Recover the amino acids of this structure.
């Protein structure tokens, strides 16, 4: 089911999200819906608070594949990259954000199993953007030259 994406101004986007403790059917349904929602909007990622659920779960949909990260945490962040970003919760805008160029994260999957992953370039950018959502941070807080984009 495609869920409604919460827009900037809604307080749920500014919450520090709670860790996921129940790896149950409700979590699976949420993650399935987040996948459907991010694909419907052709986004690179979506965080649970963006569909109104303030828990630490994100999806990332990039060249490297489709990923679900539950309770993700940075192990390290290296380097620097500067590039354009947008957000499904800030429709019709884009801005330039400097992010690490390479990151390592620890996370759980929907069953609660633990993994680590190293990502670079755009994949690393998408992870940084989505993990910020879990702490109530929007890319517009970090971006320079946030501007309107046509066709959205
Ligand atoms: Co976003």
């Amino acid at each position: 089911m495609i869920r409604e994406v919460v827009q900037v101004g809604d307080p749920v986007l500014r919450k520090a999200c709670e860790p996921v403790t129940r790896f149950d059917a409700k979590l699976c349904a949420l993650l399935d819906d987040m996948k459907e929602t991010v694909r419907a909007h052709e986004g690179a990622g979506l965080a649970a608070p963006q569909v109104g659920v303030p828990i630490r779960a994100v999806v990332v949909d990039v060249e490297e594949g489709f990923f679900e990260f539950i309770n993700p945490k940075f192990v390290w962040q290296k380097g620097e990259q500067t590039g354009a970003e947008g957000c499904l919760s800030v429709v019709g805008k884009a801005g330039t954000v400097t992010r690490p160029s390479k990151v390592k994260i620890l996370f759980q999957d929907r069953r609660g199993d633990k993994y680590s992953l190293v990502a670079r370039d755009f994949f690393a950018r998408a992870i940084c953007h989505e993990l910020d959502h879990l702490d109530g941070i929007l890319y517009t807080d970090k971006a320079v030259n946030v501007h309107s984009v046509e066709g959205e």
Summary: Residues 11-148 form a domain with the Peptide Deformylase fold (CATH 3.90.45.10). Residues 25-40 form the longest helix (16 residues).
